[in-house]
């Protein structure tokens, strides 16, 4: 008859406060993947978090089997953060197992190393980091493109005008950002140099698509070699708005160096809800004034604070770049 006992209580570091208790299982089957799926994955986590948790539990399963096949004396093993209490062979054991927060593999550390599943984890983590940034929204109309961005003022001592979330690239191109502002400045400065070199060499403005391509080319230049521009992926996503010979256009870029042309797009922490609202309210016959109102009304829905000229920025490219003054932003707010 197989030895049976209740699955011990587990808590995986500070990343989750969920205690897991399951019915009695055979000792050999307590860490089977069916139970892992049930116990560790069904708490609404993203696919990336699910996969990382399962990888860690595989390590714990291996450690459990190794120790259960060895000594039956009471022992304490320290491996990393997190805690685990177990009972084997009639004697209690306490093991400190790896925490989810700090568990790493060789595929996590190398920015140039593909995992066996064909993934670059550092790029995926950079994309996940964008979801922690402030919300930015872009809408394209027949007249031009509108950008609206949330500005997080973390202290009353901070000067609101010093928080730049919308930047001018050229007289006909502007961009809004979500993520690390320092990384965004690096990309924008590169784009500014490219557009000025193009204007000097060819006597004409650079197209919006070519400017976006130049930005994404730089975003791909990361690696561990000395010749690389960055040792990690850029932790920023951009909404690039412009007006050229092809008319108004809006592009979206992410840390992988990929870009897409959009009619409307939201990025940042409130992007999921904002994208849903954009799908309901956007149409190609919008005027610039209507686009301003829609963008700011959606920002109002996803922001945790009251919308004021100090915590939002609005800009338009129609056909030249223009950043709204606080009084112009206030005028849009009064229309909500």
TrEMBL record:
Gene3D superfamilies listed in its UniProt record: Glutamine Phosphoribosylpyrophosphate, subunit 1, domain 1
PROSITE patterns, alphabetized: PROTEASOME_ALPHA_1, PROTEASOME_ALPHA_2
SMART domains: Proteasome_A_N
Keywords, ordered alphabetically: Cytoplasm, Nucleus, Proteasome
Gene Ontology cellular-component terms listed: cytoplasm; nucleus; proteasome core complex, alpha-subunit complex
MF-aspect GO terms: RNA nuclease activity; structural constituent of ribosome
Domain Proteasome alpha-type subunits: 107-129
Compartments where located: Cytoplasm; Nucleus
InterPro entries to which the protein is assigned, alphabetical: Ntn_hydrolases_N, Proteasome_alpha, Proteasome_alpha-type, Proteasome_alpha_type_5, Proteasome_asu_N, Proteasome_sua/b
GO biological process per UniProt: proteasome-mediated ubiquitin-dependent protein catabolic process
Coiled-coil annotated spans: none
Function according to Swiss-Prot or TrEMBL: The proteasome is a multicatalytic proteinase complex which is characterized by its ability to cleave peptides with Arg, Phe, Tyr, Leu, and Glu adjacent to the leaving group at neutral or slightly basic pH. The proteasome has an ATP-dependent proteolytic activity.
NCBIfam families referenced in this protein's UniProt entry, alphabetically: PRK03996.1 (NF003075)
Family from the record: Belongs to the peptidase T1A family.
Protein name: Proteasome alpha-type subunits domain-containing protein
Species: Cannabis sativa (Hemp)
């Amino acid at each position: 008859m197989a030895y049976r006992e209740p699955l011990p209580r587990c808590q995986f570091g500070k990343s989750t406060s969920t205690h897991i208790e399951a019915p009695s299982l055979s000792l050999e089957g307590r860490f089977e993947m069916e139970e892992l799926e049930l116990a560790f994955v069904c708490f609404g986590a993203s696919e990336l978090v699910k996969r990382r948790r399962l990888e860690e539990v595989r390590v714990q399963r291996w450690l459990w089997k190794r120790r259960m096949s060895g000594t039956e004396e009471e022992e304490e093993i320290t491996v990393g953060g997190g805690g685990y209490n177990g009972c084997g062979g009639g004697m209690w054991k306490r093991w400190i197992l790896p925490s989810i927060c700090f568990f790493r593999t060789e595929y996590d550390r190398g920015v140039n190393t593909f995992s066996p599943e064909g993934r670059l984890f550092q790029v995926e983590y950079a994309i996940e980091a964008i979801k922690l940034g402030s919300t930015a929204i872009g809408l394209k109309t027949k007249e031009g493109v509108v950008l609206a961005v949330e500005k997080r003022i973390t202290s009353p001592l901070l000067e609101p005008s010093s928080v730049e979330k919308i930047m001018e690239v050229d007289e006909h191109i502007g961009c809004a950002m979500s993520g690390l502002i320092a990384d965004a400045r690096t990309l924008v400065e590169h784009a500014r140099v490219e557009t000025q070199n193009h204007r000097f060499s060819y006597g004409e403005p650079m197209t919006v698509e070519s400017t976006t391509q130049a930005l994404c080319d730089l975003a791909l230049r990361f690696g561990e070699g000395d010749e690389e521009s960055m040792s990690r992926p850029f932790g920023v996503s951009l909404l690039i708005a412009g007006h050229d010979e092809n008319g108004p256009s809006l592009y979206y870029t992410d840390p992988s160096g990929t870009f897409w042309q959009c009619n409307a797009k939201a990025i940042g922490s409130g992007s999921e809800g904002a994208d849903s609202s954009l799908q309901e309210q956007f149409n190609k016959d919008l005027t610039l004034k209507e686009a301003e109102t829609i963008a700011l009304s959606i920002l109002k829905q996803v922001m945790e604070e009251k919308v004021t000229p100090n915590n939002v920025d609005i800009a338009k490219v129609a056909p030249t770049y223009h950043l709204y003054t606080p009084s112009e932003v206030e005028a849009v707010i009064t229309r909500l």
